[in-house]
Design brief:
Number of strands: 14
CATH class of the largest domain: Alpha Beta
Largest sheet: 7 strands, mixed
Shape: globular
Bound molecules: pyridoxal-5'-phosphate
CATH superfamily of the largest domain: Type I PLP-dependent aspartate aminotransferase-like (Major domain)
Helix content: 40-55%
């Protein structure tokens, strides 16, 4: 047995056990998708776990655009953008994205994950300080770790705590720059950032730079789905807007947008994933362009998404589930203990609903949720069905009774504590 095998064996055995007990919910192979419905084995289920919020991944106009691009540029890019994989479609999309989010320039990467890692890593260094929300996405923490900057986490969506941490860091002295990184919409809780409160921190530190990861806000928040900064009418005060194509924009890929063209030029030549990893295939780029076209023409999709989500929130409240006020399409069912969440998810699946449990470290320990997320293409019958099943299971597992209020008591997570200075 190798040392590596020794290290991995207990985990592999744990997964085998979970599979044998029928609780293992991850990596389920989907045989076919119709958007709001999917086929797994020979069963058709209602999908309420997808980030395809506008239901555009199956829109014939988007599919056609991707197919045409395949014909013109082929299936693979043939290299990184730096070398021979840069295509006219990438540059056209960058112009379109910059305009969409209200910034001068944008730069496309192959995934959202590598956008965060590449950008934060190449822009920041050991002399800098990065203030991060404790519940930020793993890609942000990876970027911070790679940069070597001093990472200062603050309580989730708590600008007061961020301010205290900022003042303490200023007192200790900062040689380089201070970057605050937060998200427009948090992927597990569905919380929208209290952006104006965070931007007000600039009063204490005029050189503060703000980086907004709007992976789950683009296409969903603000007028015509232009994102969270537009929602709060403060695009000009956010220095960097990051977005992904893997959610509402029905594709894969990511981008960073800013008014600072020189910073963007630096990133173009220093972001490691941009230089050393293959470019986003043209078909994926074309799908994003076509999604933006549809969104331009049919902004009512955003309204429909909000109406559906509001219906779900009210439905969950009637069942007795604790639901926070929010305007995002992510509505977690707060369960608490991890094992109950696994049971609940398994039974949802057995009843025909595809939704996954989010457990530690995606959420704090003992505060597991079932993440349900909705699409503008869900029909009323889908929502009726999901509410009926959730009600039945919530009663069975006594979920309203079990739910422990987590507001204001967000526990430390390992991924954060390993970075705290
Ligand atoms: C907030 C946030 N940022 C970045 C990413 C990474 O994006 P992608 O999946 O497009 O690589 C995700 C993915 O879920 C995310 O939720």
């Amino acid at each position: 047995m190798t040392l590596l095998n020794e290290r991995c064996k207990p985990f592999a055995e744990y997964v085998d056990q979970a599979k044998a007990c029928g609780f293992y919910p991850y990596f389920r192979p989907i045989a076919q998708s119709w958007g709001p419905e999917v086929q797994v084995d020979d069963r058709r289920l209602v999908m309420v776990g997808s980030n395809d919020y506008l239901g555009l991944a199956h829109d014939p106009r988007v599919v056609d655009a991707a197919a045409k691009a395949l014909g013109r540029w082929g299936t693979g890019p043939g290299g990184s953008r730096f070398l021979c994989g840069n295509m006219t479609v990438h540059e056209a999309l960058e112009e379109r994205l910059a305009d969409f989010v209200g910034k001068r320039k944008a730069l496309v990467h192959t995934t959202g994950f590598t956008t965060n890692v590449g950008v934060i890593d190449c822009l920041l260094g050991p002399e800098d300080v990065i203030l991060v929300d404790r519940e930020n996405h793993s890609s942000i923490f990876e970027g911070c770790r790679a940069s070597g900057a001093r990472v200062v986490p603050f309580k989730h969506n708590d600008a007061g705590d961020a301010r205290r941490k900022l003042l303490r860091a200023l007192e200790r002295g900062i040689q380089g720059c201070v970057l605050l990184v937060t998200e427009g919409v948090f992927s597990m809780s569905g919380d929208a950032v209290l952006l104006p409160d965070f931007l007000a921190l600039g009063d204490d530190c005029p050189s503060l730079l703000v980086y907004l990861d709007d992976a789950h806000g683009l296409g969903v928040m603000g007028p015509h789905g232009r994102g969270t900064a537009a929602r709060f009418a403060c695009t000009g005060r956010v220095d960097y807007i990051m977005g992904t194509f893997s959610k509402a924009l029905a594709s894969v890929g990511g981008f960073i947008a800013t008014d600072d063209e020189q910073v963007l030029e630096f990133v173009r030549h220093h972001s490691k994933p941009l230089i050393f990893s293959a470019a986003l295939p043209a078909s994926a780029v074309a799908a994003v362009q076509a999604s933006l076209d549809v969104l331009d023409r049919e902004p009512e999709r955003v309204d429909r998404l909000r109406a559906i989500t509001e219906r779900v929130r009210n439905g969950y409240r009637e069942i007795g589930l604790k639901v926070r006020d929010s305007e995002t399409p992510i509505v977690p069912i707060h369960i608490g203990p991890e094992m109950t969440a696994y049971h609940f998810a398994q039974e949802l699946f057995a009843h025909g609903v595809f939704a996954l449990p989010a457990v530690y470290p995606a959420v704090p320990r003992g505060k597991a949720v079932i993440r349900t997320a909705f699409m503008s293409t869900h029909e009323d019958r889908h929502i009726d069905f999901v509410l009926e099943v959730v009600q039945k299971l919530a009663r069975k597992h006594d979920v309203p009774g079990r739910f422990a209020d987590s507001e204001g008591a967000v526990a430390e997570t390992a991924r954060v504590s390993s970075l705290v200075c």
